[in-house]
Amino acid sequence: MLSRVKTVAFNGLEILDVEVQVQILSGMPAFTIVGLPDKAVAESRERIRAALFSLGLKLPAKRITINLAPADILKEGTHYDLPLALGLLCGMGLIKQEKLSEYIAVGEVGLDGAIIKVDGVLPAAIRAQKTGVGFICPYEQGGEAAWSDAKNIVPARNLAELIAFLKGETVIEPPTAQVMAETTSELDMKDVKGQESAKRAMEIAAAGGHNLIMVGPPGAGKSMLAARMPTILPLMTKGEAIETSMVASIAGEFKGDKLSFVRPFRSPHHSASTPALVGGGRPARPGEISLANNGVLFLDELPEFARSTLEALRQPLENGRINISRVSSHVEFPAKIQLIAAMNPCRCGHLGNTARECPRAPKCAQEYQAKISGPLLDRIDIQIEVPAVSPWDMSKVAAGESSADIRKRVVAARELQQDRFDRFGRKDLHTNSELSGDMLEEAAIMDSEAKELLINYANRVKLSARGYNRTLKLARTIADLQNEIKLHKIHIAEALSMRWKVPEYKI
């Protein structure tokens, strides 16, 4: 008898259909798994054998062959345990083939028959929903699977419960999709003393989804400001939250069984390797840039990152996706991030402070700043200086503006942008940073004074075409915060004031 069970394989966020084919024939006792299984899949034989023994069952003393079709795709991970076990139980006559054909199954099997959590449940459940079949998964991940809108989700605790359900002897309640409560953050913009121009830049960056770099001495508040960025960003839409959670699910970082609408904030250490930042490995896993999808990637001490690692960010910052190419696979992950970076002006950090700067100034500053390439800087819309906070600012008793107040203005500006994208028929866009081509020209109409200012500045500093367009996007966001339809001279001027350039730094 040949039994068949549906499951899936993962290639980035692409979900591939896999069929587990189990054949039990007369002959010398053997248990063989074919179809390019990795070590984890090959070891499933012993886990399944022990799990069946815990149920009082014994594998038949026959020749058992399991094929994972299609056989030319590498099968990786422990989520194949459950479909393999179900195929064996069907081959032994304990479960009907007709019932199994109605489901996709994923899950690891413990030695006691428990069904254990695995990575990739949400994208697998979405695949089940698209193909119109049910979905069997570990009990703890039922809430995660529920966000797929699949019609028949079966969250099972163990094999015994699942067998009884498939035989019609018991009922397993379907899970409900739950939202993780938005916890009140202890971080707030009002904690930042002084730095009003930096706070303004953070607000503009949040409103338009613009990349931002802060340059200033140690202790000026750069990291403090960056850590509070999520507190002024609007919550994710349902589509954004599901896409972000799919990446987290593939990486094994989906927390609990509830979906969070809070935008991710990732802050890798500067010793992170290129694969850790952009993704890679075998199997290919999402890196920090994909785990921060629809959120913020904060790179502190930017020049301390390896040059090759930083240059790998150039393409995903431009198109919002990262392509990982290996000899055996080509994987694509989403990488729609808002990059927030911070750096000191030089290695000692006290350039311009005659009492504290090192004796190699200003040459050391030129060498240090040169670690950040021009093409990478050109992709960062807002480039500002964050000076040291004065004692007068630190002694202020009155708190500054709260994150909640700033977020209201950010949300209002984003609603204007969304209305504009709806008029363009582009519901896939969400922020001004995504504007391009004819859409940018139509959205960023300037009056004559604004146009003259921008053209004169671009000619004087030899602004690149990318820099020109990014200045327009930034000005469009500034105008949206003021609820202005047309771009005026003041909007262009403020946008240009946020285009810090290394040669213009005081050295």
Task: Provide structural commentary.
- With 507 residues, the protein is of the alpha/beta class.
- It folds into 3 domains: 2-166, Ribosomal Protein S5, domain 2; 189-407, Rossmann fold; 425-503, Orthogonal Bundle (Helicase, Ruva Protein, domain 3), CATH 1.10.8.60.
- It is built from 22 helices and 16 strands.
- The protein has helices spanning 39-42, 44-54, 81-91, 97-100, 121-131, 142-146, 159-166, 196-208, 222-227, 238-250, 274-278, 288-291, 307-311, 314-319, 363-369, 374-378, 391-394, 403-424, 437-443, 448-461, 465-481, 489-497, and strands at residues 2-11, 14-25, 30-34, 63-69, 103-105, 108-109, 115-116, 134-138, 153-156, 212-215, 265-266, 296-299, 321-325, 330-334, 338-343, 382-385.
- The strands form 5 sheets. The protein has a 5-stranded parallel β-sheet.
- Strand 6 and strand 7 (115-116) form a beta hairpin.
- Helix 8 crosses helix 21 and helix 21 packs across helix 22.
- The model is unreliable at 502-507 (pLDDT under 50).
